[in-house]
Amino acid sequence: MASITIRNLDDDIKQRLRVRAAENGHSMEEEARDILRRGTGEIAPPLNLAAAIRARVAPADRIDVELPSREAMREPPPLGGEGS
To answer: Is residue 83 predicted with pLDDT exceeding 70?
Structure first.
């Protein structure tokens, strides 16, 4: 993997990057990598499995499913036998 150094970065930009990274739960380096990925047209990987699933099913049409009625639970068998 390559490394880069960014010189003469305004303090205001660095502070905004720090805040943005904290809001997204990233380090400043990871936030900068994410910004560069998006800026160069590379799609960033999902943050986690739940986010990936949510992104995939969010646009789908919702349907209502009718659940079948349930019967009451039966009584459990008695524990222990004769002579206990």
So the answer is: no
